[in-house]
Amino acid sequence: MTDHQTPSASESDGTNTGSQESWWRQELQWLLMALQFYTRIPARLILPYDEADLNRASRYIGLIGWIVAAVVASAYLLGAWWHGPWIAALLAVVAGILVTGAFHEDGLADSVDGFGGGYTPERILEIMKDSRIGTYGALALSVSVVAKIIFLAQMTIPQALAAIWLAHSVSRVLAISLVGDLPYVQADQRSKVKPIAKSIEPGDVGMALMFAVLPLFFVPFGAAVVVVAVSAALRYCCKVYFLKRLGGYTGDCLGAVQQLAEMAVLLILVR
Is 11 helix (H, G, I), strand (E, B) or coil? Predict the structure, then answer.
């Protein structure tokens, strides 16, 4: 006889069950964090969190794109049933702005103001932090909103639904993928924007990418190839530009990339 006792099967099962429950709770926490930070949809966190958790929550950015797309598509269908393609397109764009709190549009406006009016990284960051919108930012917002309405209004209902799904998924994954390649830059610790991911693991990028790939199968093959090619080119150009002008990225930069990618995908899918 020895004092050592082998754990019983019930004890082993209990440990595995507890481990699985902990894993599910952590994944749910990250999903809720992504929902809370990237949309205006109410989401109550179930665990305490820190900055590292927000970084890991980025793995669900593609799924957030699906959720936003569902809201936008619902508004589009309501408009199409109520009046026609132009009202449908208008309601879709407005719904996208409301469900995200204009989070990405704000980044676009600030980025265009900063890069358009600043000549040094310090000045660019200073302009980006200014809560007032400038001429460049106003023009960029106007072009973004009008362009998306026009693109959606030219599509049939099935085309528009597929385009909405793909555009909101690909654009968000494209933006967050830059986090792994660029350093985060900030003028000081005071920022008018809410917290953002400042690093991302390759595995998290891969998981996010899965949510962007699936919608590609619901558009024509040729269009899907063009979307992939244009997305890769846009990512490369933005990466080089941000490094040259700023030495890295800010949250506003990511918002601008998301908006540019969303417009690009919609334009490609116009028939």
Answer: helix
Note the pLDDT of residue 268.
98
- In total, the chain counts a number of residues equal to 271
Q: Is the dihedral of CA 74, 77, 82, 88 positive or negative?
A: positive
Query: Per DSSP, what are the bridge partners of residue 184?
Result: 249
Residues of the chain with pLDDT under 50: 1-2, 4, 9, 11-12, 189-193
Q: What is the pLDDT of residues 231-241, one digit of tens each?
A: 999 999 999 99
Dist. CA 105–CA 118, nearest whole Å: 20
| Structure tokens given for 72 | 């936008």
In this structure, is the dihedral angle defined by the CA atoms of residues 73, 75, 78 and 84, taken in order, positive or negative? negative
Cβ count near 117 (within 10 Å): 17
Residue 249 is classified by DSSP as B
Give the residue from 23, 49, 25, 26 showing the smallest Cα distance to 37.
49
